[in-house]
Amino acid sequence: MAENKLHVDIVTVEGRRFKGDADFVVAPGADGELGILPRHIPLLTPLKPGVVKVRNENEEQFFFVSGGFLEVRPDEVTVLADAAERAEDIDESRAEEARRRASDLLQQKLSNVDQAAASVALARAEARLRLAELRRRRRT
Ligand code: ATP
């Protein structure tokens, strides 16, 4: 059984967010979304803020990841994320607040470094809000 499965690990510096088997994983690669099936070729790529989807049998689980790295081996997917949350653990008002702060900052004249940081913070907040919204729609 196990040969047709991916062993998936989603970890952050704060701890493990998920460990389990999957038939299919989708991850937000820096160069575009990646769909991973068992026996995928080995791959190491940076991640951008977005959603990791883990599908096993008929069950789908969704995680926000803020960025980090994805390592794929034929039977293993490891996500090393800066921060990660299960869709149901996203605090929407916190993300709204973060989005507002980042948008306000981007209205100001900033150094390139601050501009880049505010853009990434905005991308994190928007990805969190999109996933929270997706979850709400799937539940209704
Ligand atoms: P904020 O400005 O609200 O801190 P951020 O995007 O800067 O947002 P991160 O650096 O991505 O925050 O994450 C810091 C920690 O806070 C991580 O543990 C992350 O999981 C958690 N976190 C941040 N925003 C949220 C949220 N909206 N819901 C749940 N957890 C969050």
Record the SSE blueprint:
Layout: E1 6-12, E2 15-22, E3 24-29, E4 32-36, E5 43-47, E6 50-56, E7 59-65, E8 68-73, E9 76-81, E10 84-86, H1 92-107, H2 112-139
Parallel strand pairs: 1-9
Antiparallel strand pairs: 1-2, 3-4, 3-6, 5-8, 6-7, 7-10, 8-9
Helix pairs in contact: 1-2
This protein binds adenosine-5'-triphosphate.
Question: Overview of this structure, please?
Answer:
The structure is a single chain. This protein has 140 residues and is α+β, with helices and mostly antiparallel strands. The chain has 2 domains: 6-87, ATP Synthase, domain 1 (Sandwich); 90-139, ATP synthase delta/epsilon subunit, C-terminal domain (Single alpha-helices involved in coiled-coils or other helix-helix interfaces, Up-down Bundle). It is 31% helix and 43% strand. The chain is built from 2 helices and 10 strands; from the N terminus they run E-E-E-E-E-E-E-E-E-E-H-H. The protein has helices at 92-107, 112-139; strands at 6-12, 15-22, 24-29, 32-36, 43-47, 50-56, 59-65, 68-73, 76-81, 84-86. The strands form 2 sheets. The chain has a 5-stranded mixed beta sheet with strand order 2-1-9-8-5, with no helix packed on it. A 5-stranded antiparallel beta sheet has the order 4-3-6-7-10. Strand 8 and strand 9 form a beta hairpin. Helix 1 (92-107) packs antiparallel against helix 2 (112-139). The longest helix is centred in the last third of the chain and has 28 residues, at 112-139. The N and C termini lie far apart (34 Å). The mean pLDDT is 95. The site of adenosine-5'-triphosphate (ATP) has 13 residues, from helix 1 and helix 2. Adenosine-5'-triphosphate binds next to helix 1 and helix 2.
